Amino acid sequence: MRRDFPEVKKMDRYVLLVKAPKGADITQFREEAKLLAEKHGLKAELHRCIGLTVDGVILYKGGVVLIKRKNEPFKDHYALPGGFVEYGETVEEALKREMKEETGLDVRILRLVGVYSDPNRDPRGHTVSVAFLCLGEGELKAGDDAKEVHVVPIGEAGKLPLAFDHAKILRDALHPKDCW
What distance in Å separates the CA atoms of residue 169 and residue 164, rounded to the nearest whole number? Predict the structure, then answer.
């Protein structure tokens, strides 16, 4: 049930993504950003942020779809297709968009596999992924961040060295009784 809160001032939030080396002192930058915002009648706060992503375990033609990554991290490694949720998207919309962009497939979501939040799962920084099991339909075609796209027999997919924590996601999707 959605409620309106008339006493709460509604605002738009914008994020300036600042990438700093791990452990960097951003104190001076933070203060300068606050002053710049105030100069324009705005308020600026710097918080460390978490990236939200989606990953798809796509069942297709008797196997599971894996991509070979085009970019770092894990360039040339096998991975589940996926990517970042864009502002204004639900995770389900992001999943369908990312699956289409990377594999050419339309997907039908079967179920939520899980939420993966280990702060060290992505070497670029703290990224939380919502993973889904889905059925793929259409013509397989690599695109976007995928260098190649493959259908791998289910029994073989788990034996491959996969990027990130995708081996765990794949295991959880295909053998849910073993979760937790």
Answer: 10
DSSP category for residue 20: -
**Cα dihedral 78→81→86→90 (10° resolution):** -140
Q: Is 148 a catalytic residue?
A: yes
Q: 42 lies in a domain?
A: no
Give the residue numbers spanning the domain of 121.
Answer: 51-174
Q: Looking at residue 110, which CATH number applies to its domain?
A: 3.90.79.10
Residue 13 lies in a domain: no
**Considering 86, 137, 148, 156, which one is annotated as catalytic?**
148
**pTM (2 d.p.):** 0.81
Q: For 61-99, what is each residue's pLDDT tens digit?
A: 999 999 998 888 898 899 999 999 998 999 999 999 999
